[in-house]
């Protein structure tokens, strides 16, 4: 609660400075509206924001689920088979090296302006941190545990199931946390390139009409959704992997 209180205090101070600077310098609202104006705009357009936020949230959740499942499956395949590892490693590098914004128009052409292209874009962004972190955890399993399992007669599958996967779960949770943090990127980029609804679409629509306060209102809603989603995932992962406690500096 103390940490939340400090964060709120800092946020209120920054918002107050923002509002004061806008009023003192006389910055036009179409360039940089103040927080109060943005809050009024958000209140007056709550229905529109809620409708578009629900669409973007659905894209984020589906992209997070698909990308995470794909990343976990890829990491398991690479850990179980050297051949799969050699074949999939270039795919991982390509998935990370290609900017999603560069291929977003192609994905819209291939999958349409609907939900599918947004899910694919979000999955491509989420796939890499999950697969990379989980595979790294699987590869760094303590060798003594692996040798002990093999001495007990465990084969590759049993060693992977009972030794390597449990040992790699903390690394997987780190990857999932990163994936949750970047989940909004794929959905919003997809909506920027081609969509008829969603917060990204609302930002582009409002920006073209110089409704900067509406752009900021949509950004604020997107930020709130991302923070809430990350907090829920973070707490859920902490409960699922209690044997990996976090340490904080004294």
Automatic annotation (TrEMBL):
Question: What Pfam families does the annotation carry?
Answer: BPD_transp_1 (PF00528)
SUPFAM superfamilies in the cross-refs = MetI-like
**Any one GO biological process:** transmembrane transport
Q: Transmembrane segments in this chain: where?
A: 60-79, 91-113, 182-202, 214-233
Signal peptide residue numbers:
none
The alphabetized UniProt keywords are: Cell membrane, Membrane, Transmembrane, Transmembrane helix, Transport
Cellular component per GO, a single term = plasma membrane
Q: Topology versus the membrane, per the UniProt entry?
A: Multi-pass membrane protein
InterPro entries per record = MetI-like (IPR000515), MetI-like_sf (IPR035906)
What are the residue boundaries of the ABC transmembrane type-1 domain, all occurrences included? 49-233
Q: Does the keyword Membrane apply?
A: yes
Primary location group: membrane
Cellular localization per UniProt: Cell membrane
Tell me its family.
Answer: Belongs to the binding-protein-dependent transport system permease family.
UniProt-recorded name of the protein: ABC transporter permease
* Species, as recorded: Ancylobacter dichloromethanicus
